[in-house]
Write a structure and sequence with these properties.
Layout lengths: L1 E5 L3 E6 L5 E5 L18 E8 L4 E4 L1 H4 L4 E5 L7 E10 L4 E6 L24 E6 L3 H4 L4 E9 L9 E4 L11 E4 L4 E8 L7 E5 H11 L16 H8 L3 E7 L1
Antiparallel strand pairs: 1-2, 2-3, 3-13, 4-5, 4-15, 5-8, 6-7, 6-15, 7-8, 9-10, 9-12, 10-11, 11-14, 12-13, 13-14
């Protein structure tokens, strides 16, 4: 039997036959704290998200859970903050869809990546974009890369990949790309003290949420960056990866 509990900073998972494993929720709670649950934290916290069509954005449920105010920064590479609202959540798989609800918003433009539903193989190259530890590292988007270490997460959890790309508080909800720049996962957790161990939710679960709650028409399906070098990919993809600021 698997037991899970939250202590305000991390999720503890354990069973009757093994030692406890502590997972760090990969978002900071405020400008001065790291980690935390938005039920036991300060009044503000942050995470990462990425664009779908028609003003929709993907992030983690734990990023927006309990938020009365959601602001999105980084659209088209600017520092303008746009208001957003929650449209749908999948609490079991830690996914959320939000949508820009701001009269100033005039669209994301042509989204340069597709969302790939097929499974990645172990050993596949991946890279992650996000906004980790902004109070220490600043608000510039950060890149980390690695490989798919396993096609399953903790105790064989089939909903997630284990990845070697380093993730930190603030990466929650960020996109994980394959080497061609297709979205293949949504970052949601890491393990404190375990070097190069992170977890990302498989995009098949994201697509299920999109199709059941909105429409498959908002899923980007055209990749225009596959032939670019990694630095060139990042220059393009960063405009569609957003800094999410939440308040109670």
């Amino acid at each position: 039997t698997l037991f899970r509990s939250f202590d305000g900073v991390s999720m503890v998972a354990a069973d009757t036959k093994s030692e406890e494993i502590k997972y760090l929720k990969t978002y900071p709670t405020s400008s001065s704290n790291v980690g935390g649950s938005n039920t036991n934290q300060g009044s503000s916290w942050t995470g990462t998200g990425f664009a779908l069509k028609n003003g929709y954005i993907v992030t983690n449920n734990h990023v927006v859970d309990g938020a009365s105010s959601i602001l999105v920064q980084g659209i088209n590479g600017t520092t303008v903050e746009y208001k957003a609202e929650v449209v749908a959540v999948d609490k079991n798989n830690d996914l959320a869809l939000i949508r820009i609800n701001d009269y100033r918003f005039d669209g994301f433009g042509s989204i340069p990546y597709s969302i790939k539903e097929t499974l990645c193989d172990v050993g596949s190259d991946v890279f992650v974009l996000g906004y980790p530890l902004t109070s220490y590292m600043g608000e510039e988007i950060k890149l980390t890369n690695g490989i798919i270490s396993s096609r399953s997460g903790y105790q064989g959890d089939i909903t997630t990949y284990q990845i070697s790309a380093p993730v930190q508080p603030g990466n929650s909800g960020g996109p994980m790309f394959d080497k061609n720049g297709n979205v293949v996962g949504v970052v949601n957790a890491g393990i404190p003290g375990a070097e190069n161990v992170g977890y990302a939710i498989k995009t098949s679960y994201l697509c299920n949420l999109i199709k059941s709650s909105v429409s498959s028409t908002i899923i980007p399906q055209t990749n225009t960056v596959s032939a670019k070098s990694l630095p060139e990919k990042v220059k393009t993809l960063r405009r569609f990866t957003f800094y999410i600021k939440c308040q109670k």
